[in-house]
Write a structure and sequence with these properties.
6% helix, globular, 4-stranded antiparallel β-sheet, mainly beta
Length: 179
């Protein structure tokens, strides 16, 4: 069944037509007892990933209400620490893209898949906010406020992604000629 998740940055709730109680609050608290608040979120590999102040939290697999559990001694929900504010998270093509104001990282699978998980910086362009990112077809466009430009990541024929570059001039040209 489909679940709709809403947040205003302070409170979050989920809504589902199939539940007896249609609306349920999401009281997200991590393993350290910190309340998790977010604006940017993405569904990836059956987890809800959210950008918090200095990292990315992810919920229990297939359970957006559990954020601090351990299954057979292994954390199924958790936290990826960043040394700077995470501005956006976006599931695209082969992974999860995690943006800060100055760069973009790619997570290829869930952090719990310790044998295969890889988190690497893929672009030295950041994203201003979760509202400054758009997915269209095989492209992921984002606005970098530091470089005052629109950049994009492209999905290749093999399903891999690669950072490509700026489209700022093309965007300006479009609006100058069509507005």
């Amino acid at each position: 069944y489909d679940v709709f998740v809403f947040t205003n940055g302070n409170k979050a709730f989920a809504y589902c037509f199939e539940w007896e109680e249609k609306k349920r609050d999401i009281n997200a608290v991590d393993n350290q007892g910190r309340e998790i608040k977010w604006l940017s979120m993405a569904d990836f590999e059956s987890h809800l990933y959210v950008a918090s102040q200095y990292g990315v939290h992810f919920s229990h697999s297939a359970d957006i209400f559990t954020w601090n559990d351990t299954v057979d001694g292994i954390e199924d929900s958790g936290y990826i620490d960043f040394s700077k504010r995470v501005t956006a998270v976006k599931a695209f093509s082969t992974g999860l893209f995690i943006f800060t104001e100055t760069d973009c990282s790619h997570l290829n699978t869930t952090p719990n898949d310790t044998a295969n998980a890889r988190l690497q910086t893929v672009a030295m362009n950041g994203c201003f906010s979760f509202e400054s990112i758009v997915n269209h077809d095989i492209y992921l466009f984002f606005y970098d406020d530091n470089q005052k430009g629109v950049f994009y990541i492209q999905m290749t024929d093999t399903g891999q992604t690669r950072p490509v570059g700026s489209v700022t001039k093309e965007v300006q040209s479009f609006f100058n000629n069509n507005v």
